[in-house]
């Protein structure tokens, strides 16, 4: 199956191109996207390094009690802020194609202010709720101070103008002011003995620094421009995203609330550890998909381009996600015993299940960007509610029956259903798409490496030592890289060609 065989059916017969829709040259979109992957990848690496450095330095000067209080604040704040991001104006602003872009920006900025104001009582309720539930009113004062992040986040909205035009270098250069400035303030205050207030003030200071810089760099004048139709469009677009976010949030909240009895605190800790490990499979796919989203919006009425973008971007991301997820399954025992310690042994079974689950999850993972580009966000709410219903409905009895492994079975069942649902949605979106053939192609480069590892272990020659584990892991990586280079050679050559800024005519078609 090639992208030429896929077609995106029009939303209605005789549909015409919206006014102001950009029709940028395809080669230019490809080059911008390729360079954007590098810029966004470097930015994500920088965020990890800044966060790790800030955390290590702050930990040296803060007490465990300070960190415990910060944990409560962080859970409360990021719960609310995460919902705000789901119900924000940014994705819809990228997707619109109005003729007057300054007016479109000002209307979107107005909607962003309205959404942020609506989140203030939500954040306040979450902070008060945590204080009541944990009988700790100390969180109230810093929680109220953290409310100042909401207006500063609105001031950062102009950054999305650079994202929309795929000027990733400019966007990320300005965007790094927030985490970098926050880290500097946090470390300085921690050294001076400010305790958990160093984290609170650092977060607020960084956010306001980022907002002021974004405000000064805005290519459009900021103005209040309320337009009822625009507000309704944005609510219609973002409402299903909010439902999807609430469904995902509710799933994990239920697991943590109910799981204490069958799993115990240690079991919940193992579940958290596994979640922290498998989340790294999202990194490559998220970077590629987020980079492509403006290009997808610009080309949303060019069916062949959308089909090509979907297949190639997902295949590129799967080159990382499938080997990483499969590797977690194969080397779960070695990872736990040699990296995090034998006391985490109960997590091995769950990690083995979740490794494969997360690898399969990335087959067609980027579907949401293409649906958002055409405004079909209702699908996100449906998929998220189905997933939440399965994980909660099956997970609670399975946790009581099989403890930690039981929740793994629930996620595996939910992923199997999710894969089928994605297949149906994508087959309707791209005529001729088959999820099973896409699944097979995604796992094909990893199968020889997995077979080699299993064969060595079956022969009894694999040493259960750190050196032996490293040797087998090295073999797995080498075989996977070699198989990927052979099976995906045309796509890799094309990607490297764009990154090397070669002319479009020099890049082989796939």
Could you name the key traits of this structure?
single chain, about 500 residues, mainly alpha, globular
In short:
With 510 residues, the protein is mainly α. It has helices spanning 26-61, 64-86, 90-95, 101-133, 140-146, 149-155, 159-164, 168-175, 177-191, 196-217, 228-258, 260-278, 282-298, 303-330, 332-340, 347-361, 367-373, 378-429, 435-443, 447-459, 466-487, 489-499.
Relative strand content: under 5%
Return the structural class.
mainly alpha
Instruction: Using the alpha-carbon principal axes, give the shape.
Output: globular
Query: Mean of the pLDDT scores?
Result: 83
Extended strand count: 0
In DSSP terms (H or I, runs of 4 or more residues), the helix count works out at: 22
Radius of gyration: 24 Å
Low-confidence stretches: 1-5, 9-23, 502-510
Q: For the terminal residues, how far apart are their CA atoms?
A: 11 Å
Largest sheet: none
Taken in chain order, the helices and strands follow as: HHHHHHHHHHHHHHHHHHHHHH
Query: Helix amount, in percent?
Result: over 70%
What does it look like?
With 510 residues, the chain is mainly α. It is built from 22 helices and no strands. It has helices spanning 26-61, 64-86, 90-95, 101-133, 140-146, 149-155, 159-164, 168-175, 177-191, 196-217, 228-258, 260-278, 282-298, 303-330, 332-340, 347-361, 367-373, 378-429, 435-443, 447-459, 466-487, 489-499. Helix 13 packs parallel to helix 17. The longest helix is centred in the last third of the chain and has 52 residues, at 378-429. The protein is globular and about 70 Å long. The termini are close together. Mean pLDDT is 83; it is low at 1-5, 9-23 and 502-510.
